[in-house]
Amino acid sequence: MLGVRSGFVHGLMLLMVILVASSFPVGAVIADKLPPAVTMCIRFLMAALLFAPLVFKRHGFALPKPAQLLGYIVLSLPLVAFFWCMFEALRYTSALNTGAIYTLVPAITAIYAFVINRETLSPIRASGLLLGTLGALWIVFRGETERLLALQLNHGDLVFFIGCLFMAAYGPLVKRLYAGEPMEVMTFWVISAGSVWLFLLSLPQLPAINWPQVDPSVFVGALYLAVFTTLITFFLLQFGTVKLGATRVAAYSFLTPVFVLLLEYLLGKESLTPLLMVGAGCVVAAMLLVQRDSQTAN
Could you tell me the pTM of the whole model? Predict the structure, then answer.
């Protein structure tokens, strides 16, 4: 049985997945409105500015030590790369393709976790990762092999896959670089470092933007992403990684298509067919295998 504290952490990971699942449709709506680097810069700056008062009130304003600052800069790189790739990819590919590619993140994370943290992968956990990948893909393609066979990869898919390679490294790097500081402090400085990178990437494009003509949905969408899928999810991801380990947290990504499916069902856009329930069952079984396996060091 999970203890109360462990169960609470796992509950937070479920919340994180729900928020992550919501970022894909929101991102798709605003992906074509501005260049990806500019959109992400607005998102990260909003998140940093909104989070700053809380962090400074609780912990005061103090620049991190050089070693910590370097760690925050390193951690910001995979996040910036992933989100830039996501917005760039959504201009050329479909949500179906990106959803399929995103299911590879947990398995890639397990490889990084071994290389960076020597987090070994037992046969049980490896089986869970394989089963979860297959179950998530089953849901993405609605249990129809014709959709899988008809999948045509394009430039956007390659860009998103590269982004997933970066994102998979984030959890293991958090585990390696975390020095025991308050989690909100770590979150703030990682987001702030990401804002700097994105501002530098945006500089060549900023003069050409007619800001009064920018669709208001960009700022509304960026605000939602800043609060719910940047501040909250980054905090939860870092917190969960420290408590559970990178591979166990990454395995929650398998649930992303499940929550998307449930959301579409509640909106009347999707039906819960037996074929889809088979995929959901595989994902749940995979989650139990990965989370319960105690042979892997966290």
Answer: 0.78
